[in-house]
Amino acid sequence: MKFLLVFDFDHTIIDENSDTWIVKCAPERKLPNGLRNSYQPGHWTEYMGRVFVYLGDNGVKEEEMKRTMTTIPFTAGMIDLLGFIGENKELFDCIIVSDSNTVFIDWILKAADLHKVFDEVFTNPAAFSNTGYLTVQHFHAHHCAKCPKNLCKRKVLKEFLDKQLERGVSYTQIVYIGDGGNDLCPVTFLKMNDIAMPRQGYTLEKKISQLAQSLSPVQCSVLAWSSATDIMSYLKLLIKE
């Protein structure tokens, strides 16, 4: 029997937000106010599309973007944790579900030689156009009122589990590791035997405790983490059992 590890990316695997980090490539490392203020809740992908157009218009090339993105620090202990998971792949399936994009995640994981740890990455598809501009698209369409328009992580998780079942793979336990508000929807989908690991002091932890206070707690167990060493300790206990 295997365990499924589900990771968010920004502020979870890496210690920053990849989408805001790219602004370091902009002239004077900042965006004009008009562009910065053009974000509308639930429409982050469209906003990032405009950011990429601005960068392209200012002559920011793929090489410079890649160089900048691969300087993002990993969260404390994360490299060790992913190394440990890589050494125990017969026990762990490991996926990323992220509101970042395929280009950023690919660059960052490959630069650190960590891409082989993950079986699949579910994130917004991105590519460079023939004019050299980075473009990004919605991951999918969905009907969940709680999630941003481009991505419902619960839907991704459910579809992944269904597909695995068709292949004859079921999991002893799902461990969901994340930090943000958009991680709450998949966490509410987890069952009693599963575990949510919200990052301490971040939105997901706060939202889980708000649910408990309003007497509609999540079904799964909850264990907060502050460094990836905490996650590794838990996984080591898990495989000892």
From TrEMBL:
<feature type="binding site">
    <location>
        <position position="10"/>
    </location>
    <ligand>
        <name>Mg(2+)</name>
    </ligand>
</feature>
<feature type="binding site">
    <location>
        <position position="99"/>
    </location>
    <ligand>
        <name>substrate</name>
    </ligand>
</feature>
<keyword id="KW-0378">Hydrolase</keyword>
<dbReference type="GO" id="GO:0046872">
    <property type="term" value="F:metal ion binding"/>
</dbReference>
<dbReference type="InterPro" id="IPR006384">
    <property type="entry name" value="HAD_hydro_PyrdxlP_Pase-like"/>
</dbReference>
<feature type="active site" description="Proton donor">
    <location>
        <position position="10"/>
    </location>
</feature>
<protein>
    <submittedName>
        <fullName>PHOP2 phosphatase</fullName>
    </submittedName>
</protein>
<dbReference type="InterPro" id="IPR016965">
    <property type="entry name" value="Pase_PHOSPHO-typ"/>
</dbReference>
<dbReference type="GO" id="GO:0016791">
    <property type="term" value="F:phosphatase activity"/>
</dbReference>
<feature type="binding site">
    <location>
        <position position="8"/>
    </location>
    <ligand>
        <name>Mg(2+)</name>
    </ligand>
</feature>
<dbReference type="Pfam" id="PF06888">
    <property type="entry name" value="Put_Phosphatase"/>
</dbReference>
<feature type="active site" description="Nucleophile">
    <location>
        <position position="8"/>
    </location>
</feature>
<dbReference type="InterPro" id="IPR036412">
    <property type="entry name" value="HAD-like_sf"/>
</dbReference>
<keyword id="KW-0460">Magnesium</keyword>
<keyword id="KW-0479">Metal-binding</keyword>
<dbReference type="InterPro" id="IPR023214">
    <property type="entry name" value="HAD_sf"/>
</dbReference>
<feature type="binding site">
    <location>
        <position position="19"/>
    </location>
    <ligand>
        <name>substrate</name>
    </ligand>
</feature>
<comment type="similarity">
    <text>Belongs to the HAD-like hydrolase superfamily. PHOSPHO family.</text>
</comment>
<feature type="binding site">
    <location>
        <position position="179"/>
    </location>
    <ligand>
        <name>Mg(2+)</name>
    </ligand>
</feature>
